[in-house]
Amino acid sequence: MLRVQQDDEVALGALMNRWELPLKRLLARVVQNARDAEEIAQAAFVRVWEQRAKYRPGAEFRPWLFAIGINLARNRLRWWRRRPEVSLEAWSEMDPAPTHRGTSSELERRELVEAVRRAVADLPRALREVLVLQEYEELSHVEIATAVGCTPKAVEGRIHRAKERLRQPLTRWLKT
Fold first, then answer.
1. pLDDT tens for residues 116-126?
2. CATH code, 1-94
3. What single DSSP character describes residue 84?
4. Whole-model pTM?
């Protein structure tokens, strides 16, 4: 990132190669739409280039990049809410688990995967963001707080509320 701050476009290409897939995975889970995740990721790297002077040397790059991506995803989700005639499901390109025949344990696992995907997608945006950043991206509470613009304590509370909201739709798979 220090080289990018010195207008090194090759260094930006190296950052993109390293962080493109992790950013797209995060965004796809947040916006529930692969095509939009692709567009938002591209916009995020444009924003990295435009905002390169604001990057603090020594700061971790991943939370900074994820913060840019999350903010752009929030803008896209707000755009969707202003156009209610198109449902989020209609926009979704995230394929459900394949439906070919398999063993009963394979089918149950696919069913669980789809149930978790739906339950996470149904969470409010703020809860979904922190949960995705913790569970899928394995960020610390401090890194998540940086990415979403809140305190680590707020992150802790949001993660707790997200997990509580997931309990009911996933009761069938929870151990007693």
1. 888 888 899 88
2. 1.10.1740.10
3. T
4. 0.57
